[in-house]
Amino acid sequence: MTPASPLPFAEQPLPAWRRAVLKVGSSLLAGEGEGLSPRHALNLAQFVSSSIAAGREVVIVSSGAVAAGRGLLHRKPQAGAAMAERQALAALGQAQLIALWQRFFDRPVAQVLLTHDDLRNRRRYLNARATLQELLALGALPVVNENDTVSVDELKLGDNDNLAAVVAALVDADALFIATDIDGFYTANPRTQVGAQPILDVEALTPEFFAMAGGAGSGVGTGGMHTKLEAAAKAAAAGIETFLFNGTQAGTVSALARGALIGTRFRPAQNRLAARKYWLRNVPVEAGAIVVDAGAANAMGQKGASLLPGGVTTAEGDFRRGDMVELVLRDDAGERRIARGVSQYSAVDIRRIARRHSREIEGILGYTYGENVVHRDDLVLL
Asked: Going by C-beta distance under 8 Å and a sequence separation of 6 or more, which residues neighbour residue 9?
């Protein structure tokens, strides 16, 4: 069968963004023979550098460790390779992957290895978020990858597409850029279906769109168009826009730097703040509560402030760091639920630091997770 000639995508304006996650698949990093190649990574790195120079922040989610490990051992990809072999290849190749990215930047590149289990567990989620935010504050470039060496169920089809969407929500990104080896999303597989039409803008990902998606497009990566739609749907649920583009085309990548998209735009159903507040309002709360005084209640309600330990009178129950708990005001008028939020400290720790200044936390506990008991970004008023 003669491959179909894909129809071109028209250029469209890229909306403004402040912080983004860029997902780069194995197909863009693998060499013609074995190992990794800088051919397409260089253009993507230039987009990242120009974005940072413009005052934006970028986190890269990069595949390629397994492919890099194969290159070191001169092994060809094999269907049905044993899990232990793939994990060993990932361990060998991870250093090569980070070295590839570091060569393009004059700022430090930080390796961050995660599994989906890290992000499902709320306490580990908070720790990962704090680390990534601190790396950005330090001016480093985080490069995130699935921790393939210890993953079992997580090392599977298209995992890094979905991981990138979760990381975008983790760091409160405005945008998720997915670099792939196809121009964008089509009504059918443009490599095999003559007349497949490019789709420039997707308002909402319905089952009909998923039915259009095919399987993996190369023998190097593990993801296909279906997993990219899954990632776009996850990002949309968090209020984050997704932009799918061809990372092998230098003109397409350079267009991003000047504020233009040649690819597909997936819009969220609601803005990022509304999506987060919805989650905060509806996730189940743990037993117990943080009891606050009138001053703290007023600061949170009228000024949008975080909850500091000085405004806490006590904590009830046995909840842990990262749990969703209710914030309660008790005064002469009785008891009122005023808010709910993700606690940065356990109930035991809060009882020890209640009524104390934030700068005393480390001296009392021997460690600190920051000055806030509940950060305003993790809090919603009732």
From this structure: 183, 184, 198, 200, 262, 263, 264
